[in-house]
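Shipment paperwork, digital attachment
Item: protein structure file
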Amino acid sequence: METDKLKPAALAGQQVPDSDDAGEGLAVGEIIAVVMEHRWLIAAVTSAFIVLGGAYSLVATPVYKADGLIQVEEKSTGGMSAVMKDLGPLLGDSTTVSAEQEILTSRMVLGRVITKLKLDIEVTPKTFPVIGRAVARRYKGDQPASPWLGMNSYAWGGEEARVDALEVPRVALDKPLMLVAGEGGSYTLLDEDDDEILKGQVGERASGKKYEVFIAKLQANPGTRFVLVKQSQEMAIKQLRENFAVKERGKKSGILEASLSGPNIDKIVLVLDDIMNTYVRQNVDQRSAEAEKTLKFLETQLPALKKEMDAAEAAYNNYRQSRGSLDLNLETQSVLQSVVEVDNQIVALRQERDELRQSFTTEHPRVQAVDQRLLRLKERRAQFDADVNKLPDTQQKVLQLARDVEVSTTLYTNLVNTSQQLKVSKAGTVGDVRIVDAAAASKEPVGIKKPAILVVALLLGLIASLALVWIKRSLRVMIEDPETIETQLGLPVYATIPHSKDEVGIVKRAKGNKAGELLAVTNPEDDAIESLRGLRTTIHFALMDATHNSILMTGSSPGLGKSFISKNLGAVLAQSGQRIVIVDADLRKGHINKEFGLRREQGVSEYVSGTASLEEIVKPTSVPNLWVVTTGQIPPNPSELLMHLRFESLLEKLGEQFDTLIVDAPPILAVSDAAIIGRLTGATLMVARAGRHPIAELEQAVKRLNHAGVQVKGFVFNDLDTERQRYRYGYKGYVYRYSYSKSA
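Attachment content:
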């Protein structure tokens, strides 16, 4: 017993009315549909990026990082005079961390390191492109690896060259030279044009053409090449700065973290250690220089003060000897002590002023402050002079001489003591910075890890593939939705034919000369055939008011599937009990005869030319109630043949003998045959294929037919991708079909 079971499918003409609330669903659904439509492209692009990411993680040179810690202390005043110690805050001499960061990255420090470690000489083995470095890096042998495929000009692992000296002309700085290893420790140096510069032996200095080189070690197979570059000081410093970084650990902590990155762990540790040691040494040298500067100033003052002290003592002794032994009374001793104290202060301030003048002008506030103090001391000194003038002449003279001796002796003694302290301080000068942690490097490379590289590659692949899909969709202005035709052309879409995988198989088998298959016969429950059954009803109403019971099937361009629709629609109509005839009017490339296993000869061409009768050209098929009129021999003038009265007579006679006549015509934009035939048929349907036309092409095809007096009834939208459409939640074309199955 057969029972009907209702199953949803994509059938024609039953579109759901528009709804305003479908907008958001349409947008999301369309995105999902586009992604699913291009899922293989997205998967391919993403996989390619993952493969590239994996390859990059294998061939990329690992980069390691060495770091160390330096403590920056507040600048000390050890080795300076007491006066300068007091003036330290005024002179703004305290060390700042930002200033020390700049010193660490200065040319003064980095230049010394480059010169000492010969970092301006770069020697790199020439490796095979892309994979050579990875192969050489993974080689673990003590001797150079054997060349791959005899390519001995490349390094494959285990090669080493140490260049202790390299002098080149100025024009050759920063330009690559080629060092070619020879037999028995010999080598050849080539310029960038591969012209020979000189030849030499390892361990011996070689020179020629203003070039000079000393190679201490060369371990490589004969013929192996090394890229040799003598960098300028500026370029070497720039390159070192790119991999060198200094930052403060914690705000105002006074701890600087210095780091250096590079592919060679031992080298970056050595270079970073030397940078930090060079920085500390220059800091100590700077502190020693300050003490040396102060010491030189004091040493210029000591001879003069010594001379003044000796003169004062001699004058005092001579006067006492000439006048006999004289003693100062208590009052005079008190005045002497006050005068000496003031004079000492005046001399100290003058010394301080001289030191300040080495750094500031007379208009500086600190210098002016010292000048004001000197002025006040001189006023006090004048008052003491007035008191001294009241003493007896003998006491005044003795007081004056004793004062000179006392002042000069005190100043000289102080300067001698300060000078000795500076000498001791200079010998044991300690800088304001010290190394807390020496340079050390982790055994693990820094940067993005391999799993992270693959994740990044995956994300980039998805982004790139989606961008490619978006570009492809933006550039492709093809019609994907039958509703677009109805909206922009104002013509109904009578049927939406879904894509049929079975029909694709039939076409492939037909190319292998296996003819005679028809989808409506081999698989009558296919969704495409179900849609044609819906079109069968639509055609009945379309021909009700027509003068002819014939239908013209045409399209805008080739490859739309109009012949597929014509033959299967004829089979569907015939299965309903109607007498149907299909006329293959494509007298240029018609091929409907192949699907029915018929010969092309004895068809339209022969009838119009009068060499065959109607009975001879109407050929039965294996489908009951279905006949076919083939094209006949391909004529040299198809358009003229179709305009003949016998072709019009053919259609009229066929229309009298059959219930429905289906005429398959060439595409209208290619030739004018469809416009000629369209005036002789009852209805004209155009076939459009999903993703094959811009709307302008269909519009032009309709205009071409209209200008010829043929009115297009509507469209048949072919090859709709239902897999894609099912993701479009807002798609306004859901339809249903009946399919039949046997059940007990």
